[in-house]
Amino acid sequence: MAKLIRKSGEEMISASATAFDVAVIGAGFAGLSAALVLGRYLLPTIVFEAGETRNHRTKHVHSYLGLENISPSRFIVQARRDVLSYHSVNIIKQRVTAIKSSKDHFLIATDQNQLPIKAKYIIIATGVIDTKPNIKNFIKIDGKSAWHCPHCDGLETAGKSLIILAKGNGAISYAKEFLGWTNKIKVFIQDSCPLDQSQRHEAKRIGIEVVENDPLVEVLKVSDRSSGKIKLLSNSGKVYYSDVVFYHLGYNVQNNVAKQLGCELEEEFIKVDKRQQTTVPKFLQQEM
Length: 288
Ligand SMILES: Cc1cc2nc3c(=O)[nH]c(=O)nc-3n(C[C@H](O)[C@H](O)[C@H](O)COP(=O)(O)OP(=O)(O)OC[C@H]3O[C@@H](n4cnc5c(N)ncnc54)[C@H](O)[C@@H]3O)c2cc1C
Fold this sequence. Notes:
- By secondary structure, this protein is of the alpha/beta class.
- Helix content is 17%, strand content 31%.
- A hairpin with a 6-residue loop joins strand 7 and strand 8 (117-124).
- The longest helix is centred in the first third of the chain and has 13 residues, at 72-84.
């Protein structure tokens, strides 16, 4: 079984002990969930942790039964603690940079480890990265009064004014998701893809305002007014106020590892079968 050396709080893999049953790539909610179960089966497991979780900028996580309103950072700290209570599991703060199949195992290289780490099975849990609005000072509201997922944070718009930053394609159907919470909705089309006439009519019919050809470019100010607390500037110089901002601009699937292994993709996501197996067989005959 592989052994982890802990040195001055830093974790590193010992050169003589680099074979694991399972390597989990990504230590977000998915990767740590998998590692927890593997720990209970006493399987020698290594979890690679690099970067932040997708929701790290938001203050509270919702709709996890028993953990309502927990902060993402507290959630992850507790999840790591749970996982590390099983001694067959190790977590290392390293990014996987290369991966290949060999005769009877996979070989994994990281940004810090010169020696490839071996594992019999790979779990890819690398997540997605959301495309944030390319507007000045967005960081001031990101996760505090700006989110992207109605299912997670739509309640924040209840009875409030809402500005949505979206691409033309899909903007109106996204905006409609908020109608149970608010009817004060203004949609800014941030790209050059125009709405078609039927979308414009539908938006008008249900009272959603749409601004085309004048994208928002800057968060000017965030005040503590009870309403209209975010002051935004459009490209033409107009000023708008809103209580809450949502954005719907897509995401990048973190599929580099999967691509290196030759996994088939479907719309950038890893194609899996009913048992969540990728199209790559257990081992290929390659050398790293
Ligand atoms: C603002 C916001 C609010 C949200 N609120 C909620 C909510 O209230 N409730 C809810 O259920 N969901 C919420 N979500 C969604 C939730 O964040 C995601 O569903 C969840 O993070 C997905 O977990 P994951 O493990 O698949 O991916 P992630 O959390 O993104 O974790 C993947 C991890 O893998 C790492 N990684 C990537 N490539 C490598 C590599 N090569 N080597 C090593 N590590 C790698 C990444 O850096 C990352 O740390 C929210 C999301 C956002 C953005």
